[in-house]
């Protein structure tokens, strides 16, 4: 049987609650991984996060959902502040693989 790749992309990170441990979005990501998602893509569709904020968000997401360490995690950053590339690099520094 071949392995199926399942990807989940929850809504923009700005919609996440500050404390991810209590966030329904963190629960959604955890449920997706538990159900077999092999890739989780974190999106900042508003493009309003600075690199340090985005890096902190990724760090907190890994802490809230330790299961993310077993799958690929990617990011999609909007360039509203001309910071998309910097945010993506900051996310890679926190362990993002895609």
Task: Describe the structure concisely.
The chain is of the alpha/beta class. The chain has helices spanning 24-34, 51-64, 84-93, and strands at 7-8, 39-44, 72-77.
Q: What would the keywords be for this entry?
A:
about 100 residues; 3 helices; elongated
Topology:
Elements: E1 7-8, H1 24-34, E2 39-44, H2 51-64, E3 72-77, H3 84-93
Parallel strand pairs: 1-2, 2-3
Helix pairs in contact: 2-3
Q: Can you give the mean pLDDT? A: 79
What would you call the shape? elongated
Instruction: Please work out how many helical segments DSSP would assign.
Output: 3
Which value, in Å, is the CA radius of gyration? Answer: 13 Å
- Distance from N terminus to C terminus (CA atoms, Å) equals 25 Å
Portion in helices: 25-40%
Q: Quickly give the structural class.
A: alpha/beta
Give the topology string: H per helix, E per strand: EHEHEH
Largest sheet strand order: 1-2-3
- Total strand count, please? 3
Percent of residues in beta strands: 5-15%
Explain what the structure shows.
- With 98 residues, the protein is an alpha/beta fold.
- It is 36% helix and 14% strand.
- The protein has three helices and three strands, in the order E-H-E-H-E-H.
- The protein has helices at 24-34, 51-64, 84-93, and strands at 7-8, 39-44, 72-77.
- Strands 1-2-3 form a three-stranded parallel sheet.
- Strand 1, helix 1 (24-34) and strand 2 (39-44) form a beta-alpha-beta unit.
- Helix 2 (51-64) runs parallel beside helix 3 (84-93).
- The two termini are 25 Å apart.
- The model has no long low-confidence stretch (mean pLDDT 79).
